[in-house]
User: Fold Molecular chaperone HtpG from Chitinophaga horti.
Amino acid sequence: MQKGAIRVQTENIFPIIKKFLYSDHEIFIRELVSNAVDATQKLKTLASVGEFKGELGELDITVKVDKENKTITISDRGIGMTAEEVDKYINQVAFSGAEEFVNKYKDQGNGANIIGHFGLGFYSSFMISDKVEIISKSWKDAPAVRWECDGSPEYQLEETTRADRGTDIVMYVNEDSLEFLEDGRVRSILEKFCRFLPVPIKFHDEQINNPTPAWTKKPSELTTEDYQNFYKELYPFSEPPLFWIHLNVDYPFNLTGILYFPAIKKTYEMQKDKINLYSNQVYVTDEVKDIVPEFLMLLHGVIDSPDIPLNVSRSYLQGDPNVRKINAHITKKVADKLDEIFRNDRKSFEEKWEHTGLFVKYGMMTDDKFYEKANKFLVMEDVDGGTFYTLDELRNETQALQTNKEGKLVIIYSTNPVQQDSYVWAAKSKGYKVVKMETLVDAAFINTIEQKWDNVQFTRVDADIADNLIDANENKDSVLTEEQTTKLKDIFTFQLQSQPNIKVDFKGLAADAQPVIVTRSEFMRRMKDMAAVSGQANSWYSQLPDEITMTVNANHPIYQDILKEADGGRQQKLVRNLADLALLSQHLLTGADLTAFVHRSVELLKV
Assistant:
């Protein structure tokens, strides 16, 4: 029997491991199973080159929990270790000194990735153990060995018996870690970290992984059904994806994976952190925001790359050349895929626009390279539904009627065609095209695009009366006398005196236009919309009162009837009701004002 002290450049490495890795203590399963996979893959390689000539047999890795004896055992049938190899790989913890290790990485909170980088994966077993045993038999002609350590630098190493090649790691679980003796806890960790490892992983004889997931195969080997089935495997209760992108790059960096475009409902119940990062099929994290462009964080799927540095801080990760290249490559692949669908099957592209439009607009705002490509396939849907226009197509359709005095194309849009129906109708009656802009990002998108597109201006359909949507027009002749106009203005002013943010304007509009039309400042409303979407409920803009213009159509015949009313009180109530109806159409009549409107309406109907 050999006894000795583990050779490290500090008195005791184990408190360091426990201290800096404690928050990630479940990682020990990932590290030990990954080591078992490495041992198995090495044996396959030796067999493939003719060095190992024996029978490979079953190469499963097994994980077993013995609650009674308080042990967890991880076993493989890989290359195993001789006594000399145990002494080399286990007893000599080869890194540049514990002090340097601590000083360099103590503030990074990234212990789960540090241990693998420094070859300390095996030692993660001591995070949950009072004692750890290794029983190993090499594929070479050498006796089996048993190694034991109780978490101090002292160990013992002796010959033993093992029926076949391979390695058992036996962990005697400490009192603080008894949760890991629960089958459900261990299973959940295995399913999280080992779900797609390339060697069969069995937990109490039940295989829990898929060793050949779809992303490890060539696109030519997969059918549409294969991609859809893999999506179900990843997200069992989700709706089918719209389409997907298969990543497969081996130069200048290694990257594989499949990214899916999910169906996004109009309620925008969106979930981020649905892309999982793997390294050689070992799960790493679902925090991929530095690797995947921000505007694609709502995608689902898997990316796998051994070239992404996992042992470094977030700030370094952002600056890593491979990360930047991978980020740019994913952007390009997504843009190319959308462009391909647009060019080859525009009908299908338009059918998916309800779901993909959000990605495209967000990408155009945040990524200049994506913007350049997306300009070709950004489409805007007519409020009537089913007709889509690119910018060039919309310009060709509307430039005769919707070019203002400054030479700008005025794109008239609706954020809610149902609620803004009367305004949409008024605009369409003048021959204008009105498009939908109803996603969460549209207020910010419009602001950005107005700066990037030449000679284009967006105007919301309810930002002004239809006559003024393209250019402000002079007053048309009014059928009211000067005396009638003055009297009507006095009534409106009196009724709205408690609402100083409402400006009343009299215009001679068409007789069939609405008697009162309420509009809100395009700029102020857009700023308030952006503040609301970004969660800045207490921002300066959000606190400002709405700037409301109430346009009275002096040519509507109802005013002739109101002015003939002998009852001054009824005259006042009729005017107030017209004003309230216009406010109600813009959802600006609430609370006590809405209640008063209802009571007043009932009272007027009694006469």
